[in-house]
């Protein structure tokens, strides 16, 4: 016989169905609540996804940076000519939109622009600025007048600027004041652009050859009047090369002034701020410094001072970030011990960091005229104790914060 369902059985079955349905409803409500809950597990998953995407982007950027970091030394090693361009920076002209043919447009209306040809196929631009006392007379004068102006009693300074500079930036911009000081003291100032600006390619040998050519060109016009050589930054390397050649020929200049000098190009390249990111890279010398040497670039002022026989003045600011102060001090220490400079005045003038002169603002020193007068006009003599006491009385070393 078929068993008849009782009301109790029906109620039990119905209750079970309701319980199962309520369980499904609860799960559905949980999903709905999770989706609508901003602080729930769905939001956490989204955050993890975004965080993972950000980390992936950062890793990608890091890989690119690391790739560039490794690629640059390899490229320089394979193509050492790139390193030469970084040393000379002849392709950098700041400011760019300047007509170097017209110095009068820059307020230098007592300056003549002209061109010389040290060798076939090489042209260099030259500026000749007459002393301030000849300013009025120089207005609208021609090349013949400027040539004759060399016959005046005023001495001449051949100025050798640093890399990335031109005959404009060596007399205008921050260095304009240097030129003003020199002209106000009664000097002719002659400066030129290294080869590679107009024609040819820059090289240490070529730059030194051009400087020698211009030195001889000036000397032919001034005769026995004083001719001084002033170098700044990279120009100090050209200056010591030039003076060494002159001294080897028995015709030293009257004095050599080195502003912000270095010992040699390898030590300067290793100390330069641009090399900071690679300075501790294994093989730094092999990748970078040997590439400079491969281009026959040395600028070994530390060797040149052993062949120089004329008074030497070194100016350097303690806060110089381009050419570290210790390199200028090291060069002075070597010069002071040089046998060839024995009997010649060798002076080092440090400028404290508090003055803020850095790499190219030494012209701001109100003591600069006195420093130059002492070096360029005082008779040549060795650094005896008596002379050192005299230097101290002139407040020349070291300069204080009050000057």
Question: How would you characterize the overall build of this protein?
Answer:
Belongs to the serine esterase family. It catalyses: Hydrolyzes glycerol monoesters of long-chain fatty acids. This protein has 13 helices and eight strands. The protein is an alpha/beta fold and 403 residues long. The N and C termini lie far apart (127 Å).
Task: Give the C-level CATH assignment of the domain at 103-267 and 298-377.
Answer: Alpha Beta
Class from secondary-structure proportions:
alpha/beta
Question: What is the percent of helical residues?
Answer: 40-55%
CATH superfamily of the domain at 103-267 and 298-377: Alpha/Beta hydrolase fold, catalytic domain
Number of helices: 13
Query: Could you tell me the radius of gyration in angstroms?
Result: 36 Å
Describe the sheet with the most strands. 8 strands, mixed
CATH architectural group of the domain at 103-267 and 298-377: 3-Layer(aba) Sandwich
Helix-strand pattern:
HHHEEHEHEHEHEHHHEHEHH
The quaternary structure here is single chain
Please provide the count of β strands. Answer: 8
Main β-sheet, spatial strand arrangement: 1-2-4-3-5-6-7-8
Q: What gross morphology would you assign?
A: elongated
- Provide mean pLDDT, rounded: 80
Termini separation comes to 127 Å
Beta percentage is 5-15%
CATH fold assignment of the domain at 103-267 and 298-377:
Rossmann fold
Contiguous uncertain segments of 5+ residues: 14-19, 28-32, 171-175, 379-388, 390-398
GO molecular function, one term: monoacylglycerol lipase activity
Enzyme class: hydrolase
Family: Belongs to the serine esterase family.
GO cellular component, one term: endoplasmic reticulum membrane
């Amino acid at each position: 016989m078929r068993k008849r369902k009782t009301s109790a059985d029906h109620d039990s079955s119905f209750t079970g169905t309701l319980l199962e349905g309520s369980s499904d409803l609860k799960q559905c409500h949980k999903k709905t609540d999770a989706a609508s809950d901003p602080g729930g597990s769905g939001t956490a998953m989204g955050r993890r996804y975004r965080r993972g995407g950000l980390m992936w982007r950062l890793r990608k950027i890091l890989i690119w940076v690391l790739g560039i970091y490794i690629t640059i030394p390899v490229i320089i090693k394979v193509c050492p000519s790139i390193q030469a361009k970084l040393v000379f920076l002849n392709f950098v002209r700041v400011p760019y939109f300047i007509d170097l043919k017209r110095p009068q447009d820059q307020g230098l209306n007592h300056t003549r622009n002209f061109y010389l040809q040290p060798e076939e196929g090489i042209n260099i631009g030259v500026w000749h600025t007459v002393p301030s006392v000849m300013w009025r007379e120089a207005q609208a004068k021609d090349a013949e007048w400027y040539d004759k102006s060399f016959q005046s009693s005023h001495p001449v300074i051949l100025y050798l600027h640093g890399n990335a500079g031109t005959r404009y930036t060596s007399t205008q911009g921050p260095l304009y004041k240097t030129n003003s000081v020199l002209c106000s003291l009664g000097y002719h100032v002659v400066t030129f652009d290294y080869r590679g600006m107009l024609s040819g390619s820059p090289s240490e040998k070529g730059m030194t050859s051009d400087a020698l050519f211009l030195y001889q060109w000036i000397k032919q016009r001034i005769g026995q009047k004083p001719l001084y050589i002033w170098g700044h930054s990279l120009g100090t390397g050209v200056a010591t090369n030039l003076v060494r050649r002159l001294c080897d020929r028995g015709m030293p200049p009257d004095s050599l002034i080195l502003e912000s000098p270095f010992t040699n190009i390898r030590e300067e390249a290793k100390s330069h701020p641009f090399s900071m990111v690679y300075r501790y890279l294994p093989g730094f010398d092999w990748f970078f410094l040997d590439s400079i040497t491969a281009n026959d670039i040395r600028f070994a002022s530390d060797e040149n001072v052993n062949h120089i026989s004329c008074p030497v003045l070194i100016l350097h600011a303690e806060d110089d970030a381009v050419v570290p102060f210790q390199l200028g001090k090291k060069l002075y220490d070597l010069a002071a011990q040089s046998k060839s400079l024995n009997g010649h005045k060798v002076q080092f003038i440090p400028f404290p960091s508090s003055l803020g002169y850095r790499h190219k603002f030494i012209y701001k020193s109100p003591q600069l005229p006195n420093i130059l007068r002492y070096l360029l006009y005082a008779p040549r003599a060795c650094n005896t104790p008596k002379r050192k006491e005299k230097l101290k009385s002139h407040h020349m070393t070291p300069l204080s914060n009050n000057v």
